[in-house]
Design goal:
This protein is an alpha/beta fold. The chain is built from nine helices and five strands. The termini are far apart.
Length: 203
């Protein structure tokens, strides 16, 4: 069973190195555990009805009875975490992770149960967060456990590069896309650029 535990280890390693700002790109994962493994790696205790820790992976989520974050890595609260997420699918529902991506990964309805426990124990509703269903639900976990901001990847990258300032006087901007079409509009990639008309280049 796949798990997001390794992502939690990467976050912990960054915290060990004193990193105060983490950008996490999510999407295209093989996991479907709602980010539970990631949070287990960071100290959250996901417990069954007997008070024992559940296993890893989405297959263990039906056993989840309570969440204890008393041992969650305290450094997370001092770290700014941004999540680059280019899909808006929530955790569940007709457009949710389970319906859209679940069949690719053998998912079960366990994520709805997981979300209910998160809501009860952390007082955070992760069911309908845009992007919460990305990477098997890691977006929901990062929001609930780490207070991370879920944003479009293009916004984070362009801000980090100062792209708007760099191209403000440009007459022509050439991108890596083969064509600027409806797919780009569906991704809602918006950048505050000077007004100019772009031409689509068909390859």
């Amino acid at each position: 069973m796949t798990t997001s535990f390794g992502t939690g280890e990467l976050i912990k390693n960054a915290l060990d190195k004193g990193v105060g700002h983490i950008i996490i790109g999510i999407g295209g994962s093989a996991t479907n555990d709602g980010g539970s493994g990631m949070m287990q790696a960071l100290g959250a205790r996901l417990l069954d009805a007997q008070g024992s820790e559940i296993g890893y992976g989405g297959g263990a989520l039906p056993d989840l009875a309570s969440i204890d974050i008393s041992q969650l890595d305290s450094r997370i609260a001092q770290c700014r975490i941004e999540v680059a997420c280019d899909v808006t699918n929530p955790l569940t529902g007709e457009e949710g992770n389970l319906a859209i991506f679940g069949p690719q990964k053998g998912a079960t309805p366990a994520l709805a149960h997981y979300a209910a426990i998160v809501h009860r124990d952390l007082d955070i509703d992760v069911l309908h967060i845009p992007g919460g269903g990305a990477a098997g639900g890691m977006g929901a976990a990062l929001h609930a456990f780490c207070q991370a901001d879920l944003r479009r990847g293009i916004e984070i990258v362009t801000e980090a590069l100062g792209l708007a300032e760099q191209v403000k006087d440009a007459d022509l901007v050439i991108t890596g896309e083969g064509r600027i079409d409806s797919q780009i509009l569906m991704a809602r990639c918006r950048l505050a650029l000077p007004a100019w008309q772009s031409a689509s280049i068909n390859r």
